[in-house]
Amino acid sequence: METACRPNGAGGSKKSRKDRMRIFQKMGIPGPEPNFLFGNLLEFQKVPLYKKHQEWKQKYGTTYGYYEGPTPVLVTSDVNILEEVFVKQFNNFHARKLWPVQVDPDKDEDVHMFFARGRRWKRLRGVVNPAFSAAKIRKMTPTLNECINHLLDVMRDTANKTSHKTVELLDIFRRLTLDTILRCEVGIDQNSLKNPDDPILNHCKGVINDTVKTPWLYLLGFLFPSLHCVWITLYKFLHNIKCNSAFWLEDRMREVVSMRRILTNEHRNDLMQQMLDAQFTSDSVQDLEKEASKISNPYKKFLKSMTNEEIVSHALLFLLAGYETTSTTLAYLFFELSQNPHVQQRLRLEIMAVLPRGYHTIEYDDLKQLTYLDYVIWETLRKYPLASTVTARQCMRDCTVGNMQIPMGMLVHANLWDVHYDPTHWGEDPQAFNPLRFMPEQRRKRHATAWMPFGGGPRACAGIRFALLQLKMVVSKVLRDFDFYPSDKLIVPLPLKQGATILPAEGVHLSARRRGSALSEAGLRRGSVMTGIPLADWIGMRRKSLREEDFGCEISPLEHSDNNSRKASLTENLLKRNDTVTIRCNSKENRRNSLLENQLTSEAKSHMRRASVIKGIELLTKDSVGRGLKLTAINFDTKNYKHNLFNLRDVYFNGQPDIDNTMGISTMPEELLGEMPHLKSKSVLRRGSAVPDLESVNEIELIESFKPREKSFILENTMDVFDEIDVMKKSNYTSERLHKRRGSG
Ligand code: HEM
Description:
The protein is an alpha+beta fold. 49% of the residues lie in helices and 9% in strands.
């Protein structure tokens, strides 16, 4: 891989402008007729590039060519060509498309890896890659947790201020991603979530707004690329007169770098530290490259070196990349959830099963179980390949791709919107939001480059792991607490605009309704210990908030009491529920076979705590885990009775006592924990927390029971069950049947 000079259009600068603008014609590649001065640039004045690419594909086919000034651009949605260019022939296509007023990628001091090419790119990426390793990203989980908790506070406050609980998600997610990247990258606690007028936030917005405009200087740069030095000097001069957001941010980053260098005794575990540790002794990139060229293997010694200016420009790169892309993806994702309530519901069920609401802190490994969440994220990125603007390569050496002779200097742009909507890869309904496209058997059948939202090959996005971790954590936490619906302000289909990325033009306005928390409604703090007594109190309070028809029968007030008649009425009340709930005894001899009323001892039957625990489970199951699911059986173990309490129950959903459709639920009142240390260590103290609240304990067992299963268990094994539930919910089947059974309707 060599560093070539800045190619000025295909065939180098020796060919005349006229000749260069005939290249596609000579190659037999179709495309729009170019203008001698502008090429086809004027066509982008009204229609953004990604839309124009789609239009032209309809007209000229999968692969066609057009001109930006004199520079030929080959646009393709052919996955085999993309694989050749991005992956297999990387050595011939290691450079990005150059923008007319950007830095010189080979000579300038302040070049970051996004624009660098050849050896320089390899050296820079070599320094940065370890900072994005799985091990390093895992360590960022606590910081992400904290930032997302701030987000939840702000969402709650914002939603409460408006009558329809409307939240503009793009803005709020941008503030989140800015705070997160600042903390993970440089260790700055900025908190723009709490302060919408934060100066760094405003300047980041300024940079993004600048990319949406196409100033005259850019146009000149495109028209006469060989005068690059003139344009860049003019650009810098003009922007120094008028405060330019990118320069302002660069200066802040420079200050941060200097400060971090002074605080040498604070060795932090962030991206900036990784770069500071790799700092080269001289500030000159020429010195660095000269030193590198002295040794036979230039990568070996200097692979981990960067100049000061390179560190500063990387800090700015990560700030902007981290701020813009992930927030836009989140906004698209929640938009799609609001349009596809069945996806939202299924996703929430998966999240609640693995990460119940009681857990404030999400751990890295928990996320691996969220298969459906992966599919939802991937499907969002399929429908919205927002960074398709940058998935282009410049040919650095004449070469052959397929049956085309590609000359040096030609740009090859991946037409990602067409690839991602091509029915040959995605079936007949590519417009639909269908996460199940990403089930393993479907993925296996698909070409590797049919999905490239993060680009492809060695220069694919460096921040993938970080972006995916953040996306998964945000969706998990937010969806546990809020239901999303389209608001009056939402425009469907979403109008999009193009800047550095493709983003919602008017933001994403959704109605975010906080999901009722059983515990908060009962006035209980998270993490409080639920013994029989507070549990009974809680149930008493909880019942007030449940409508009679929701629950299916009259609920008697529950209290902790020694009064025998009270106990009897409670038990009776439980048994009344047999039409919908079958409670089975799980003894050694007769596992899952006998009914509660036949098997329980009278002592057990009348035990207040037992009754309240069962009732509690019903309520909780209905309230949190089992929204939309029908609880049909509860098993518990009579063998290990201590204090007449339960230690484990299996709850079958949808009347199928089948291990694949079984979720375990356990409640562990304080006394029981004392008796059963293994439970304490396995389920409760596993997270190093205090005994979690009942809602959490309830759901802990779900985690335990899901763990040993196949990774994609939820999606593949229970798909039919969930679909049936959807149908039942839609037709109100459950309550109809309930009323019939009870003779009331
Ligand atoms: C959902 C979020 C993101 C998307 C969709 C995305 C997408 C992309 C795409 C399409 C490219 C160009 C790849 C190519 O040309 O093949 C890219 C490059 C890059 N991205 Fe991301 N990105 C995301 C998040 C991030 C984050 C969070 C960071 C860092 C904090 C980051 C850092 C970078 C860097 C450094 C490059 C340049 C890599 C190189 O040239 O070697 N990205 N990204």
